[in-house]
Design brief:
Length: about 375
């Protein structure tokens, strides 16, 4: 097997996990914890900043190109806490002046005043977890908001001065048809968001839906839904730059795009993951999932519970798992720079994927075909270690 080359460090992002939510949605497999009494907001905020200080070894004087505050439901935290968090981060590490700073918000825990506070705190991109504008479907999904609150939240974000707003929509919902999915999309487009995330509902292990399976649309209906909403979204001027992400030409999510391009990211917060590149290796790590235990572990030195240097096979698989999601594909030279592995190592799998019509390999660029997008899981499996 060819000898690994020297690694080149890619751009670096920061992910911050705020794990609490009002209730656990039946489809959710994220590290989220329903509020039992009150959120330990101040204690958790201090733990986050201490966690970042303890992760300083991963930074090596590098600057941050993006910050993503996810959850859970980050909008349960006050604007003043978010302001102190962002200020604390900036006081500790170098953050680009034009860094993209995203905060996820749920319509049920949002209002105009809070959105103004987030913007003043430094958040410049808001991601709204609407999922659907159907009250019936929202009930089935266990969401803590209704359609009126969803509309009001979008309007509040715009009124607060946000010029970069993402709306999350799910399709393939229980008993949903193509007309209902289209109505959701058309409603979202009325607000002309800069970005749309269009996800198909999938049943994940260890969720309520995994045990109590809902009746989902059949394969033909799913196909009709996808074809309808993708066509409408693209016709409205949005580029499908990733398998589930659509954006105006200047509004691609910088944070997610960096991850899909196998960039680095430091992860702080309960259950946060990180990926960092040194001169000789790529390491993945994860933090303690339970919020109380996370706070305790940070206080005594480190919240990390898992750290692993990726093998050559893992590097190849993880790069392809991410990069094949992007419509633009990837440069072969970037594969080699970011994994330290010669492209020859995966040439056989690439040839098989080309033969099956799943990818194109032309002029030093590998990209997924339309067929490959439809069978992305099968495509990625070709690169399993």
């Amino acid at each position: 097997m060819p000898v690994a080359m020297n690694l080149q460090q890619p751009p670096l992002s920061l992910y911050i996990h705020l794990p609490w939510c009002e209730s656990k949605c039946p489809y959710c497999d994220f590290n989220s914890h329903p509020i039992k009494t009150v959120i330990k907001e101040e204690e958790y905020l201090q733990a986050l900043l201490l966690d970042l200080a303890q992760d300083s070894e991963h930074l090596e004087s590098r600057s941050i190109i993006s910050i993503f505050i996810g959850g859970g439901t980050p909008s349960l935290f006050s604007a003043s806490s978010v302001a102190r968090l962002i200020s604390g981060v900036r006081g500790m590490i170098a953050v680009d002046n034009d860094a993209e700073i995203t905060l996820e918000a749920n319509p049920g825990s949002s209002d105009s005043g809070r959105f103004v506070g987030y913007r003043e705190a430094g958040v410049n991109r808001l991601s709204l977890g609407v999922q659907t504008f159907s009250d019936d479907k929202l009930l089935v999904l266990g969401r803590a908001h209704n359609s009126v609150q969803a509309r009001l939240a979008i309007e509040a974000a715009i009124e607060a001065g946000f010029t970069n707003v993402n709306i999350d929509l799910m399709f393939g919902l229980p008993s949903q048809n193509a007309k209902e999915a289209k109505n959701d999309l058309v409603t979202a487009l009325e607000y002309q968001p800069q970005h749309l995330s269009l996800y198909q509902l999938t049943i994940e292990p260890n969720t309520y839906f995994a045990v109590h399976k809902p009746t989902l649309p059949d394969e033909e209906t799913d196909s009709q839904i996808r074809e309808t909403i993708y066509k409408i979204t693209c016709a409205a001027g949005y580029n499908r730059y990733e398998i589930s992400a659509f954006a105006k030409p200047d509004a691609y999510c910088r944070h997610n795009r960096n991850i899909w391009q196998f960039g680095d990211y430091v992860g702080i917060g309960a259950g946060a993951h990180g990926k960092v590149t040194s001169k000789n290796s790529v390491t993945r790590y994860m933090k303690e999932k339970q919020p109380d235990k996370y706070i305790e572990k940070v206080s005594v030195g480190s919240a990390s519970i898992y750290s692993n240097i990726l093998s050559t096979k893992d590097l190849c698989f993880e790069f392809m798992l991410n990069a094949l999601r992007l419509s633009e594909g990837f440069l072969i030279s970037d594969f080699e720079k970011r994994t330290g592995v010669r492209f020859l190592v995966i040439s056989q799998q690439i040839h098989e994927a080309v033969t099956k019509g799943l990818v194109q390999n032309e002029n030093g660029v590998v990209k997924t075909t339309e067929l490959g997008r439809l069978f992305l899981d099968d495509l990625v499996e070709l690169f399993l270690p």
